[in-house]
Design a protein that fits this description.
elongated, single chain, 5-stranded mixed β-sheet, 395 residues, alpha/beta, CbiD-like
């Protein structure tokens, strides 16, 4: 899953527990993390605020600035470079800031975030909207009004504050219009979950702290939470939690038209977090779907399957195989297996029945206990061709 930056607000305690988990990172990033030198970046909300403030200063003074200081939440500030400014006419000006995500791999890094400001006749009123490349909200559950631009509440407040800092005198006798636009936004949004969430036509302008933390699992946690919010708002009582895009595709093939698109949520490695969120949001049923590797880790009771040290235990898999009355030679072969996929090949080669169902049952038992019995569950395992090879729903 390629994600856009986090919109990290609700349920902070659980999110921090997720974010504290270690991740496997590229070697250069791992070294930077070890040395404590990962670079932070700025959200699209901060970038849009900086572009707005620069454009408004240029409109008032007739001069462009090379950099701009903006106010962030929690009484912090940031200085951002201004890529370019164009004073289009006496009543309108546009500035652009290049989104800098630091060492974080979010898809908006390097994108131009633009703001066009103009004066209006509505005294004291600040109107903020989205233009080209900023998505429009078409589904409930995002905390944004349907039909409005996908600019979240904190960036709205930051932009309003920036306008008041610059144009406090002008607002006494006229208003200010702000239009945020992203030239590459329509193309970038194809790499996000926005269409599933009902954000159409561009990216979202996000951020609650103004700062992007490198390789923050909070981004994935926020994506899970937001996807579940949309599902609930659309009246869905059953969600399918998949470990990735491929398992999601197979799950969609399995359930066909019986479940709408917004019922499918990619939880990645965060099954425990996703289950807790389903309980918190009073979802009736969660279907967990994945392949043998992640399903086996879950069956071992691991709730964050990408944590270092959460390696698959071949002894565990041999114990499961012994419950299927597997011959001793098969158990020894499983213990020497290289990967979970290798184990599945051994199971299939020897026609061992029930093995995959038992793994699914173990996942069910762990997650049922974790949800305190407040969530109806089903666990599905796919083989690598998309066929269901294991399934358990507690019956």
């Amino acid at each position: 899953m390629i994600y856009e930056e986090s919109n990290d607000v609700e349920d902070k305690e659980q999110e921090l527990k997720v974010a504290e988990q270690e991740q496997e990172l590229p070697a250069d990033i791992e070294e930077k993390k070890r040395r404590g030198i990962l670079k932070t970046g700025y959200t699209t909300g901060t970038s849009a605020t900086a572009a707005t403030k620069a454009a408004l200063l240029a409109l008032i003074s007739g001069k462009a600035v090379d950099s701009i200081i903006v106010s962030l939440p929690k009484e912090k500030t940031a200085e951002l470079k201004v890529a370019w400014t164009k004073i289009e006419r006496s009543n309108s000006s546009t500035s652009a800031v290049i989104k800098n995500a630091g060492d974080d791999p979010d898809i908006t890094h390097g994108a131009e975030i633009c703001s066009t400001v103009s004066f209006t006749t509505q005294t004291g009123k600040i109107v903020i909207d989205g233009g080209m490349g900023v998505g429009r909200v078409t589904k409930p559950g995002l905390g944004l009004e349907i039909g409005k631009a996908a600019i979240n509440p904190v960036p709205i407040k930051m932009i309003e504050q920036a306008v008041r800092e610059v144009a406090i005198e002008q607002l006494k006798y006229r208003g200010v219009s702000v239009v945020i636009w992203v030239p590459a936004g329509e193309e970038l949004t194809k790499k996000t979950d926005n269409s599933r969430l009902g954000i159409i036509g561009g990216i979202s302008i996000l951020g609650t702290t103004g700062i992007v933390l490198p390789y923050s699992t909070a981004s994935f946690a926020a994506s899970i939470r937001q996807s579940l919010d949309v599902a609930v708002a659309m009246g869905t009582d059953t969600v399918v939690l998949t470990t990735g895009g491929r398992s999601e595709d197979f799950a969609k093939d399995l359930f066909g038209i019986s479940l709408p698109d917004h019922s499918f949520v990619q939880m990645g490695d965060f099954v425990g977090y996703a289950i807790k969120q389903c309980v918190n949001k009073k979802i009736h049923k969660a279907i967990i779907a994945g392949f043998i590797g992640k399903i086996t880790k879950m069956a071992m009771g691991i709730k964050q399957t990408h944590v270092k040290g959460s390696h698959i235990n071949m002894e565990f898999m041999a114990v499961v195989a012994s419950e299927c009355n597997s011959p001793l030679r098969v158990l020894e072969e499983i213990k020497r297996a290289n990967t979970a996929r290798h184990v599945s090949e051994i199971i299939n080669k020897n026609n061992i029945s029930g093995f995959f169902d038992i793994l699914c049952k173990r996942v069910y038992e762990w997650m049922y206990e974790y949800s305190k019995g407040e969530l109806k569950l089903e666990v599905i395992m796919f083989d690598f061709d998309g066929k269901v090879c294991g399934r358990y729903d507690g019956k």
